[in-house]
Fold:
Amino acid sequence: MLENTERTELSTLGEFGLIKHLTQFIEIANESTVKGVGDDAAVIDYKGKKTVVSTDMLVEGVHFDLAYMPLKHLGYKAVSVNVSDIYAMNAVPRQITISLAISSRFSVEAVEELYSGMMLACHKYKVDIVGGDTTSSKSGLIISITALGEAEENDLVYRTTAKEGDLLCVTGDLGAAYVGLQLLEREKRIFMESPGVQPDLEGNDYIIERQLKPEARKDIPVLLQKLDVKPTAMIDVSDGLASEILHLCTGSETGCNLYEEKIPIDPAAYNTAREFNLDPTVCALSGGEDYELLFTIDQSDFPKIKANPDITVIGHMTHKKDGVNLISKAGTSVALTAQGWDSLLKK
Amino acid sequence: MLENTERTELSTLGEFGLIKHLTQFIEIANESTVKGVGDDAAVIDYKGKKTVVSTDMLVEGVHFDLAYMPLKHLGYKAVSVNVSDIYAMNAVPRQITISLAISSRFSVEAVEELYSGMMLACHKYKVDIVGGDTTSSKSGLIISITALGEAEENDLVYRTTAKEGDLLCVTGDLGAAYVGLQLLEREKRIFMESPGVQPDLEGNDYIIERQLKPEARKDIPVLLQKLDVKPTAMIDVSDGLASEILHLCTGSETGCNLYEEKIPIDPAAYNTAREFNLDPTVCALSGGEDYELLFTIDQSDFPKIKANPDITVIGHMTHKKDGVNLISKAGTSVALTAQGWDSLLKK
Structure:
């Protein structure tokens, strides 16, 4: 999939050479970055604000398949999924460190592609690359990113502070990233069987992009502040709606009623899911990788968000003893457990 | 090498189960840890001090060989090498995040062993595990740790601020970790050829421990403060003395004269190196993994450190145009480049 035709072996640069080569164009965008790449450690000055830190690891063959994932997109995605966790704390990401383990089947040009995607995302989210580690791997590519951000104590939103009666809201739409993955895997199978066939992804731009180039919801903390709404709890949707709701409920010791008919699903994703004989609701509940924000608000804040096209109320928090339930379109209540959607999948 | 005889498959716990299982005994030791494991991100409050952050990745087959590296030691080492970078900034490590990619050949018990070593080191260095990621790997074990620490701005020591005339000092002794590795690899070869033969590592405890269970110099920033010495520049010795001196000189735009006869080498390491037909000086220059601190001080501070058995003056910084030189025991001057010691190796 690489467009670069040149191939420079990693061994020609060595570890320090590669790091120098990759980091030479880094520009620091944040005042809080006192010292970036180049010393034993980076130095950051949040001037009394809280430091927020999150980390994620992406492993080739587990989290991505380079047969359909261009390296530049992969780099972009690796940064997006990390800063998403910082936004989910209602904090502002400022710095990241990047560790890469790379096998010798990757060329310098390939690593440059990966890095250019990371730098693009850093520019988008205005975060500085302040450190990292680069090493060889016996097989495949492993990316580990740690994102740091800042927040005033009063702005932070945890996943443990939802209360009974709160409205459950989600941004954007859900399930498309998973449907996109199905599309890409189908085209890969077809390509493996008939290498001459061009992939047929037309009309599926949005779905494919949700999988290959997810965006973190940088806009939502800003929007919520503008609307004068502070969520009572918040989490990002990385593992699927069901899993995240269960995290909120377990953390906050509440129950929840989730209404199937309210779950926002993009029409193209809905139709493509159907083509694959997948239940679109199941894709939203368990697909994951949407990187939308799931949050709860006090009922009194409903008027402030109800007109916003980016936010959908999908349920409400209940007493713990009432459990975590999916209310289906037919009006039946199904307990939403980590396996809850397995039964849906089989219907 | 595992002592545990039970084997619980990782799949029986799942990702969240494994994280919960591993993190259940975490105790928070630092006031600055506001929120540890369990949310989208950890929250830290350094109360206006600077945040210092460093990251390292350890890859099976590249950085360690489980044929002779017990998992508990590996866990300990993974934490040590990370906090070492924080001490090298003259800062205090406070928190770490741990990301693991683990193949299915590891059992839950094996991961527990690894984690117990990490927790032991965390206890030793008084750092809190505040987050991480756990994922599967297609092959082998990958550990990525990010260490965070705090420092007052005036206490921070960079590698770019040494000046001409400064004395070059190093803590402890050098080269033993590399000699330890040679010993372990020899015993592995013997074991592979004759599996019945017990490893002969007697009398080499110190050397072996330097390789398997390195300690970060937590005591040195405290000692220097007690001695009222602030280094003009500092770096930790992870890649070997030569490489670190070159980093100091490049960063600080100075030259350096390093005196071979001054380089502190443990007598047992010296003798064992000789047994392997290795030049002990080369082991110190290029062996790496010593995790000692290399620093420069103003000449006027010499009386304060000269009586200290833990600190050895090994050279002095010169003008950039004078280059970076190793003055051999015979009095000849050899340019110390990244390949400088290659010529020594062949002598």
Notes: Residues 108-125 of chain A form the longest helix (18 residues).
